[in-house]
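Q: How do we represent a protein-ligand complex in a form that can be generated token by token?
A: Start from the inputs.
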Amino acid sequence: MFEAIKSVPAAAPLPRRSVRTFLIWLVLACLLPGVIGATVLVVYQYQEGRAQQEKDMVRTLRALVQRVDSHLLHVQAVAQTLSTSETLKRNDLARFHERAREVVNVAGLGTHVILRDVAGRQLVNTTVEFGAPLPEGGAEDQVRDIFTTGKPTVSDVYVGPVLKRPVVTVSVPVRVGGEIAYALSVGIASETFTTILTAQRLPEDWVAVIFDGLGTIVVRTAEKERFVGSKVVDQLFQAMQKSPDGAVELTTLEGIEVVSFYCRSRVTNWGIAVGIPRQAIQRPFVQTLALLTVGVAALFGIGLALARVMAARIAHSVQALTAPAIALGSGAPTAVPQVHIKEAAEVAAAIERAGELLKERARTLHAQQEELRKFKFFSDHSTDVHLLVDEAGGLRYANKRACERLGYDEAQLLELNIADIAIHANAYFAEIFARGKQGAIAPFEDAQRRRDGSTFPVEITATVLEFDDGWLMLATCRDITERKLAEQRVCEAALLDSLTGLPNRALVANYCAHLLAAARRGHGQGALLFIDLDRFKPVNDRYGHEIGDRVLQEVSKRLVACTRQEDLVGRLGGDEFVIVLPYLDADTRRAEVVARHVIDEITRPFRIDALEVGISPSIGISYFPEHTTELDALIHAADLAMYQAKQSGRANYHVYTRELDERSGLATGDQTRLKRGPLDERPVVDAQGGKAIAFEALARLREQRARATRPPEHPSGD
Ligand SMILES: Nc1nc2c(ncn2[C@@H]2O[C@H](COP(=O)(O)OP(=O)(O)OP(=O)(O)O)[C@@H](O)[C@H]2O)c(=O)[nH]1
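Then emit the structure tokens for the protein with guanosine-5'-triphosphate bound:
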């Protein structure tokens, strides 16, 4: 109920997304790994396919190269067979011409046979009739190699002057008598190798080519008329120099971008290459990717549609709780709708429960407010000050009486600390607060300061209680000014004579106790004057008790006038007074001077209204520590001396001597001893009025040479 409402700094708003957005993210999150995985798989398969394709192609090309090699070797074998012909040994060139034609035609391996001498001159050419003029020149290098090395050679492709089409020749030496006599060449039409390629039934858009060791194209599946006899693409030729088989990406002579697989013969150094258009290779990959993309798009579409439907359901379920939640805040009961989502249903149940709790809390709050209202009512109508104080001493509540008593309005009071109003709070508050947490605190007293600076005493009853916002001390402060005054009056009554206002016997005894204690230690000496009025009884009898009282009051004033500041004038009771003179170290005669002065003053007539009353005192003097350092004995001694003064005719003083002890005794009679014996009197004070309404006294018979004894705490005598 005393909570301070603290303002909480607003937190930065969180970025908010709709349920649909979250679900779309979810769909993406689910699809993305699949898409990435599928893409990686497709790429991997593509690369694997490429590698496998390369292997297959190289294997196929090796087989083709072997077939080309075997064809060339077969032609070479035929040429070598012809070279051993008897007709050549006999130099029967006509018969050799005939025989060579038969072999070439029968075997179907070549197109023609040419026989050359060491000068490269053609001696036989089966493409023309024997004896007809023969073409001149050509194949000089080949002939030279034959005659130099004696080894078979394969020529580059060339267009023969007779056949007028691209051919290749396989040449072998012809030995006659151990010497190389001729070079025999068997021509092979390039079409012969075409069948090797076409047998593979390669796709039409592929480009296959067979080329010789110098890179000259022997056969080509596409545009052969245009490119047979030309050099292959440089990239292919260079790749073949590095590796006998493999693949290289290049642009064909007609400008098609292909991946070219190649293989080179280690026997003839011829090569075969098959160029597959890059598009053809990438097509399956692109198709798969396209299929994948379509699939992903379809899945994403389905996912989006599902997300939309689910988001709508969730949003509907959540938004259905908005109105009940707002109603919850306003306190108006609202039915919580049925929802499809389990979690939303739980929130709905929580809202319902919160509603019940709020109702319960409202009831409790109402009850607390009612209690608070009653508390404030009673507190404000209390005669006591009620304060609620926190542990730091801050005032948290003050009732109306507090405002009235302390002179502040409520707002001002609540700005103060307990130390601002409780004078000694700094000394005790923390300790009392801590003690209050452990248990009850006994009522204690302090004084409180008003706004105007004035103070008044209070009795504080405090209880420390634990509230929601910490420990608080409920302090009930009762104004005890009246009680304190009464106590003061009682105290004064106990120490001052009510008629004259002079110190009474108790205060005299208290004062003397200090002086006598100092005297016992050898510090200071003094005197006690015991003053008894002479024949005072007749004054009472003649003028009445009231006049007697006023005479006693006037006597008191004159006694005070006869003394100094440090002297003490007291009334022992009745018409008996004492004057205590301390510090007589340097002037012991002063007691008698004072005694004489007192006699002179008291003897002067007293004017009471129209009356003139004459009276005199008798004074006994005793010295301390000279005579005694015991109070009773000191008074007793002065009393004896005073008695002696009376005996001597009154209006006189007498100093105590030891002989007085011996002269006093029971012989004087009990009546006299009782009369003269010191009375231990105590006033009986009205606690309400603070005035003495009676005296109780202890009377003792004074024994011969005996010391007076102290009265008991509660005398029973009158
Ligand atoms: N007016 C008045 N009289 C008192 C008071 N207390 C005691 N007395 C009276 O004072 C008188 C004291 O008389 P005493 O001392 O016994 O006798 P005295 O008449 O003084 O005679 P001596 O002392 O022998 O000279 C008594 O009559 C008491 O009643 C008092 O407070 N007021």
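Residues 486-698 form a domain with the Alpha-Beta Plaits fold (CATH 3.30.70.270). The chain has 22 helices and 25 strands.
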